[in-house]
TrEMBL record, chains A, B:
Disulfide bonds join C47-C54. It comes from the Eukaryota. Keywords: Disulfide bond. Pfam families: PNP_UDP_1 (PF01048). The keyword Disulfide bond applies. GO terms for biological process: nucleotide catabolic process; uridine catabolic process. It comes from Vombatus ursinus (Common wombat). The keyword RNA-binding does not apply. This is Nucleoside phosphorylase domain-containing protein. GO terms for molecular function: uridine phosphorylase activity. SUPFAM superfamilies: Purine and uridine phosphorylases. Phosphate binds at R52, R96, I97, G98, T99. Belongs to the PNP/UDP phosphorylase family.
């Protein structure tokens, strides 16, 4: 192509010098919400001409939000991966930092995902390409997960564990919630489902990890998913934490990733 | 439930007087992007405590953005439908105003959806509930579509038609684009797929209509999907319109809906 327009990022190969802007990127942090991102880094948004996504850069660390759900994060990943390619970046580590519902673990815990699984507990992502269903691998980088778990020893305030993460297309019925506008099953069916999920090693549920693992795997990016749990789904469906607790929980994965990046850059000074 | 927290809207039945705030709502306009919404109505965002969604109200018209993709719009719809229920709203018409890729029609045209179809051209939405796949109906309100088509005669600047809309989970490979970070098929396969789609009556492709049609249908809301097409996918994959043309095209469905609402309210004065 003569020119490639990264439409949803409002960037392009002719309008922007991508190697100069992004060539030194070594870490990409992706998050659902843009507010949470601004709280993390007080910077100028790079994607100024669109409100689809926001992007901030601090030295070798690029932060982008991805909205909610598989389709939204997949659009961002396609354009981000093209951006990293055009910018001639190499040795890039990409981490999704998010919130999730926990299963059988204490709210505020962090789950580092080893494998993303679908609603049927299968370690795969089904991608529809033209009218064919293609099954993709959803394993994440094992060494990176272990390195992150090691970093978590530096933050004793909250438990961190490695486990499977279930990735769904729906927040309500698709995650066994009884409190949506529609609900077609009983509390017993819900608990049976979540307990079966727990038995297969699933420790949290969110909505982006499977396509994230699949695409990063196919494109050779070392990837991790690090999510805090906001509730224990065996106990409730509603997120009714006081705002200050919610904000504090959302800081947990950011604290961990901050230590990880500082260690990698040789700039970590434990207090 | 004693209290229902509409988490992603930052509203709740105990913290907000929903009947007083929303009881008079008769029209809900839903859009992907919040910027486009602000351009339409210069108002105070109601969902102040979250950046997941923005919401604006002008008399009986409520506007909300839904992000990109089926999961993102479905979270919003669950919470919006609960909100309308708690606020005791009745006779509500809900319209998704969006952008899309056209098939075999001139860019800038408006497609009013009669039925949303999936990637296999089937008029259905497959919802995963616990570990069961449930098939839901995706037909939209026929009378409302005809009423909107009639309103389009008042705006002769751009062609408007009724057709099927294909709803996909992915913007790149899932819509037969060759320009994503990954592509596993040829231009011939792409064109064959899009031409077969055209032959079944599909005139545009977007990423939210199927779950929107299914949920609104199940909850008894009269619903329409009105999208402008930004390109003809039989000719290209990239959205490379000059910014002013893009902004003008995005106004097309808004102009149509504005006439529709004014007519319904008996306030339409053709110039």
């Amino acid at each position: 192509m003569d020119e490639d327009i990264l439409y949803h990022l409002d960037l392009g190969t002719k309008t922007h010098n991508l190697p100069a802007m992004f060539g030194d990127v070594k870490f990409v942090c992706v998050r659902g919400s843009s507010n949470r991102m601004k709280a993390f880094e007080d910077m100028q948004d790079i994607c100024t001409g669109t409100d689809r996504y926001c992007m901030y850069k601090t030295g070798p660390v690029l932060s982008i939000n991805h909205g909610m759900g598989i389709p939204s994060i997949s659009i961002m990943l396609h354009e981000l991966i093209k951006l990293l390619y055009y910018a001639k970046c190499y040795d890039v580590t990409i981490i999704r930092i998010g919130t999730s519902g926990g299963i059988g673990i204490e709210p505020g815990s962090i789950v580092i995902t080893d494998t993303a699984v679908d609603s049927f507990f299968k370690p795969q992502f089904e991608q529809i390409i033209l009218d064919t269903v293609v099954t993709q691998n959803t394993e994440l980088d094992k060494e990176l997960a272990e390195e992150l778990l090691k970093c978590s020893k530096e933050v004793p305030d909250f438990p961190t564990l490695i486990g499977h993460t279930m990735c769904t297309y729906d927040f309500y019925e698709g995650q066994g919630r009884l409190d949506g506008a529609l609900c077609s099953f009983s509390n017993e069916k819900k608990l049976d489902y979540l307990q079966r999920a727990y038995k297969t090693g699933i420790r949290n549920i969110e909505m982006e990890s499977s396509v994230f693992a699949a695409m990063c795997g196919l494109c050779g990016l070392k990837a991790a998913v690090v999510c805090v749990t906001l509730l224990n789904r065996l106990e409730c469906d509603q997120i009714n934490l006081p705002r200050e607790v919610l904000l504090e929980y959302q800081q947990h994965p950011q604290k961990l990733i901050s230590i990880f990046i500082k260690k990698r850059l040789g700039r970590y000074n434990p207090k």
